[in-house]
Amino acid sequence: MQPRPASTLALLRDTEQGLEVLMLQRTLKAVFMPGFYVFPGGAVDDGDRDLARSGHLFGHDDDSASALLGLPEGGGLGYLVAAVRECFEESGMLLARDSAGQWLDGSHPVMDGRWAVGSGEADLGDLCRSHGLALSLDGIAYLDHWVTPPGPPRRFDTRFFAAVAPPDQVPAHDGDETIDHIWIRPQDALEDRRQGRREFATPTVSVLRKLSEFASADEVLAYARDRRPQAFPTQPWPAREGDEVVYIEPGRPAYDEVCKLDPDAKGNAQARLEAGLWVALSNHVSRLTLNAGSDDGGPGFNSYLVRAGEQALVVDPVIEGRDDLHALLEACDGVLSTIVLTRPREQEAAARTLQGATGARILGVAGPADLRLAHGEPHRLGGLTLKLLHTPGQADDRQCLLIQEEGMLFSGTTVLERSIAKGYLPAADVDAYVAGLARLLEEDLHWIAPGRGFLMGQPQKVLDHLMTQCLSRVQR
């Protein structure tokens, strides 16, 4: 299914309390995200493309808009127009200027056309022509890009924008698709989400997190001018499956890993996890899936080997027999010094077996450990910096390991790929689990190496998705 183009616009204002953003609450009767708080937005339609060609615009043409969005074949202006139109329909706020170049106030007669535009009875372009207006696109900043992963019945290719709200207009929800509106500081919105007071979709949370880093609207716009969002992947990637080359679609479990390991798209990376095969994930990190089969039909558990100069670290040793032990010992080449367990009590027996053969010590913030570290306390191993992060919720001893130089988080079962994670959520202690995920988001992460499954990119988005999934399942 080809994702449908869509736009979302976060309107900003500066207050004595700090930066605030306008959010609308979707109706509780909505089939999609009922009751969620969202930014105004929706699909790009033919009318937006027509208006983009009409000339009643200020600040962008299609070439400049397409360059802003990284669209070499054009069509970028339709996204900007859709963002302005949807904002007008859903919040009553219109980014437009009159013939003198002035912002419109709330009493301008064009505002009476909001409902007609929303119902399809009137065209925003016709309204602009009749009132001598031009949509103001010059102050719109491009913040983020999301594509709905494969699977849902509706998929969207959504661009997220931000702009300063028109100073003399007052927002109003439409009472149909949206039942409430609020101006809220992004930090407060994120805290409301953590406390279960408001629900937000994963992409919305990602944008709120970006906005929370800034003290003013001008800072947001300056940031957006200096940094273009990372383009969401859309192209299938070749990978090896036995003797054949297959193509992995974006959003599928293996996609991030095969793109990382085979950046030239030669089809060299593996499309499936194979038992007993060491896979080099970076210059320092290798993975071994030791037991291929599992009760739920998914991949088995992973063990990781981290080499740091003359020393080596094993994360989550899986030892079910002498062959498994031999595989780890052979890879360590006699220099194993450290063991880290993400599920310490469950894995202690395997760790003690490996310890008996090598003399390595066990690090931990919880559960069995020879050297106890505090949460987030840096620990040097060769030329690498380790941080153990306590992530209770599934159990009180769960922990993750971060290799700071790699930005790689060894997450055990705390963070798993979506199709696998269903068996682990919700956690036994949901509040503790969500708080642990929130602490992980404070770290500088680039990759997640899970206890089962492939390497995962875009870790902030993965963590946001898990938090949203968990919070939405729990009745507060």
Features:
Nucleoside Triphosphate Pyrophosphohydrolase; Metallo-beta-lactamase, Chain A; 14 helices; elongated; 476 residues; alpha+beta; seven-stranded mixed beta sheet
DSSP helix fraction:
25-40%
Number of helices: 14
CATH topology of the largest domain: Nucleoside Triphosphate Pyrophosphohydrolase
Q: Tell me the β content.
A: 25-35%
CATH architecture field of the largest domain: Alpha-Beta Complex
Total individual domains: 2
**What global shape is seen?**
elongated
- Which regions are unreliable across 5 or more consecutive residues at pLDDT < 50? none
What does the model show?
The protein is of the alpha+beta class and 476 residues long. It folds into 2 domains: 4-226, Nucleoside Triphosphate Pyrophosphohydrolase; 273-473, Metallo-beta-lactamase, Chain A. 29% of the residues lie in helices and 26% in strands. Strands 1, 2, 3, 4, 8, 9 and 10 form a 7-stranded mixed β-sheet that branches. The chain has a 7-stranded mixed β-sheet with strand order 13-14-15-16-17-18-19. Strands 20-21-22-23-24 form a 5-stranded mixed β-sheet, covered by helices on one side. Strand 15 and strand 16 form a beta hairpin. Helix 2 crosses helix 3 (76-91). The two termini are 35 Å apart. 44% of the residues are buried.
